[in-house]
Amino acid sequence: MIRTWTLFIIISLFPLLAFSQQPSNRLVSKKDSLMPGTSTSIPFTLENSSAENKIYDISVATSSPLISPILAKGEFQIAPHETSVYLVPLRIAAETTQGEYFVTLNSTDRSSGVSFTKVSPITVSGNRKLSLTVLDTQEFTRAGESFRASFLLKNNGNVTESLILESKNAIVDHDASIILGPNESKIIEIHKRTNPEIGQNEFQNLNLSVYSRDNPKENQSVYVSTQVISVKPTNMDIYHRFPVAASLSFIGMKNMGVYHDGFQGEIYGKGTLDKENKNQIEFRAVTHNPVELNTFTQYEEYFVNYRRDNLFVHLGDKTYSSSYLTEFARYGRGAEVRYDFNKVSLGGFYNHPRFFRDIKDEFNFYSAFKIRKESEISVGYLYKMPRKEEVNFGNIKLNSEAHLPYAKGKFKISKNINISGEFAYSTMEKSEGTAYMAQADVSFEKLTGNLLYMKASPQFAGYFNNTSTFNGNIQYRIFTKISLLANYMQDAKNFQRDTLFLAAPYRKYFQYGIQYQYLPSGSVILNNGYQKYQDRLEPKQFDYYERFFRISINQHIGIFQINLEGQFGKTDNYLSGFNGNSSFYSANLAFEKFRTSFNLFGSYAITSRYQLQNQKQLYYGARILSRFSDKTSLSVFYQNNYIPEEYFKDRNLFELLFHQQLFPGNELDLSGRYSLQRGQIGDKDFIFSVRYTWRPNIPIQKVAEYTSLSGNISNLGIKRTAGVRLMLGSYLSVTDKEGNYIFKNVIPGNYFLEIDRSTTEINDIPTTAFPAALSLSNKENTFNFGLTTAAKVQGHIQFPEAEEKSPTDIESLQVKKGKKKKESIVVEAVSNDQTYRKICFIGEDFDFTYLRPGDWTVKLYRNGLDKRYKISTDKFQFTLQPAETKELNIHIVKQQIEIKYQQESLKVGYNEIKNKK
């Protein structure tokens, strides 16, 4: 194509004589901040101080082969005593790097032969421009195989880039750090091995991100996707099934030297009764525990609940709760019902407590009104019936029924502030009481916190009485890495817990400190404060007040997570009546390797909290959890002892857990524990269990009918269509001598039909894209296609040599670039359902094989080809016949430029403003 640069020639191509009294600043400034890939003009100021006309022969040279003068030679004439500006037109190549260069003007007087030289510095500015495009990817991948994709990364700027390559979900088949020069490109490949165990066809994405080490915020990310075809598909079911787990356990326990054992059965189910998942049901039945109840064994339990839309019904055992103040948590056997209207909810429950003997029965009724999505007000009434025999209800005598009306609410004041509260009143035959609670949560960008205050009067007949508590925590982030912390906690003293559990020690605790995040993977916390611990059980094991300073360090190093902590304090021991120092040192190391997680911990203390002053204590242990496979796991735990503050609960000293899936739906669990029971300091017990679980999925509703798929493979000039193996998920079929196939008893769904190419000739290709996506919903489905012989496209990229090579041919251009870098173009072959791309080098052959006969279009892209060259024909369209080899010849030619010179010189004059008297 011929380009006409008329305007450009008027401005810059023809040597321009500009006559003026003073040079223009605008012309001088053109030497600064020149952009690569453009053409420009550089001014030189020339002066003739003689009394005669001068004619000079000029030549222009530059300090870089990438900056070339458009007119390297010329002449100019200058009148006596005149000052002129000579413009030198330059072409700056796109790959010219940022920096300072020099343009040299050599002038020779024709009459005298005297020569002189002028040098003008120019500055090429930096231009950063990266491009990342998909070059090739797989549309389909079989599960277990690697999904691969390639990308073309190109530096279209003129600055050498130090780049970082990353992928969040794939492996980059290249160094993570590369150097890419101006106009340089590289092909980057990534891959990911797909999971061979996936049960259904699914889409998976891969991504590649690239960013400059100097500009990490300028991140470019490209995503590609493939459809993974399951090779071990989970058979879809024509029935809607209800998940159920039935288990039988044999449990043995040696408790204080006495051994007991027996069997315990359990059945549990949770699911829906219809395919629309509207009728949800859950049930559980656990038989009597053959050994003494503790944390590691199940107690007898029976319940069933049902949920549909706005209705919820529960029958049987559960932890019932009316409100925080009246009945926070009471395990028992009863019934509960709730119905949600648009903004109003009504409900209630009946409960017969199982582990709290002071209450015979209790009834609750409530109503809730929703103000907004996250704000509501509730009112309710709780009625408690005492047992007929005279018992004590906490610190008050429950000699009559207790009536407890209450009101509570939660309100979202703003997106950062939530408040909630409750007020309750109780009355019995001879006493009455009140209780109230208020709580607030705040969450701002730098400030987060939570506050709770509760108070109950001495005669209040709710879950708490004659107590108050205050808990709060606050965190304020001063800087990005520094935060201030404060926590206060005061336990309630009198609460009516179930007798199944022992009470934790009474705590009053306050600490404040600062956290410094010195690394993204490491932080240090400094705390100061006090704590009061008092044993609620008799005889007391501890009762002390302690002022302390604590330092904690958390650091992640490679696969290791390290936690170190040290605490130094002064202890007032109220139980033994002495004062002393207490110091604690602890370390924790966690890491994961070989599908196994390890956690090692230890602590050493010199304390005055208990019976002795400066008592030394050493605790250590470990937990190892190994997942040998998806079906087998083993867990081992050991700890030599526990601090006395934890003796209110069951504690494991040694634990061994083994899980094995024998076959789908059948599991075996073995466990053994060496433990300290709650309330015990030195008496140790041993518990073991063997548990077999069966997980049948019970059919509830038939949701579909079996379908079939049949068809014929047409012979379009190949040797045979008999014996071709076809795969449809986990179904297989082989064609008969006429090419017919059939799949029977197929579960409806979406499938991919595949051909086993080992049963066809190497060049046989289907007439439609494979794998073929099929949706089987009808009872009978048909899919026909043909097999033909694949075609081929091949060619050569030519750069025709001229009779006399100019210094701007391809070879010289590569020398100018200072690299053995081959010029290349991108060749793309496209049909209706296939697209292939290749980077092809000039002077070399290329080919596309195994193409489906039909209409094809081959497009050619420059891929950074120098602007002085063009592709003579950049698009080919043709129809491929079976077994045809199509030859293409691609020619790279020079751009033809037509220069039109202005016939008369252009003069630019500058007016001189004279002061007038």
Can you offer a commentary on this structure?
It is a single chain. This protein has 917 residues and is mostly beta strands. The strands form 11 sheets. The chain has a 26-stranded antiparallel barrel. The protein has a 5-stranded mixed β-sheet with strand order 11-18-17-13-15, with no helix packed on it. Strands 48, 51, 53, 55 and 56 form a 5-stranded mixed β-sheet that branches. Strand 44 (651-663) and strand 45 (666-676) form a beta hairpin. It is extended and about 135 Å long. The two termini are 62 Å apart. The model is unreliable at 1-29, 391-396, 802-813, 815-820 and 903-917 (pLDDT under 50).
The overall pLDDT, averaged over residues, is 85
- The helical percent reads under 10%
Residue fraction in strands: over 45%
Work out the radius of gyration.
43 Å
Which structural class is indicated by helix and strand composition? mainly beta
Poorly predicted segments? 1-29, 391-396, 802-813, 815-820, 903-917
Number of helices: 3
- For the termini, the CA-CA separation is 62 Å
Shape: extended
In total, how many beta strands?
65
Largest sheet: 26 strands, antiparallel, barrel
Give the helix/strand layout:
Elements: E1 2-4, H1 6-13, E2 18-19, H2 25-28, E3 39-48, E4 54-62, E5 67-69, E6 73-78, E7 82-92, E8 99-109, E9 115-124, E10 130-137, E11 140-142, E12 146-155, E13 161-166, E14 171-172, E15 177-180, E16 185-193, E17 202-212, E18 219-229, E19 239-255, E20 258-272, E21 280-286, E22 301-308, E23 311-320, E24 330-340, E25 344-353, E26 359-372, E27 375-386, E28 392-393, E29 396-397, E30 402-412, E31 417-427, E32 432-443, E33 447-456, E34 467-477, E35 482-490, E36 506-519, E37 522-534, E38 543-557, E39 560-573, E40 578-593, E41 596-607, E42 615-627, E43 632-639, E44 651-663, E45 666-676, E46 684-694, E47 697-702, E48 707-715, E49 725-728, E50 731-734, E51 740-746, E52 749-755, E53 764-766, E54 772-776, E55 780-782, E56 785-789, E57 791-798, H3 810-816, E58 824-830, E59 835-841, E60 845-851, E61 854-861, E62 869-871, E63 875-880, E64 885-894, E65 896-898
Parallel strand pairs: 1-65, 11-18, 48-55, 48-56, 57-64
Antiparallel strand pairs: 2-7, 3-7, 4-6, 4-8, 5-7, 8-9, 10-12, 12-16, 13-15, 13-17, 14-16, 17-18, 19-20, 19-46, 19-47, 20-21, 21-22, 22-23, 23-24, 24-25, 25-26, 26-27, 27-30, 28-29, 30-31, 31-32, 32-33, 33-34, 34-35, 35-36, 36-37, 37-38, 38-39, 39-40, 40-41, 41-42, 42-43, 43-44, 44-45, 45-46, ...
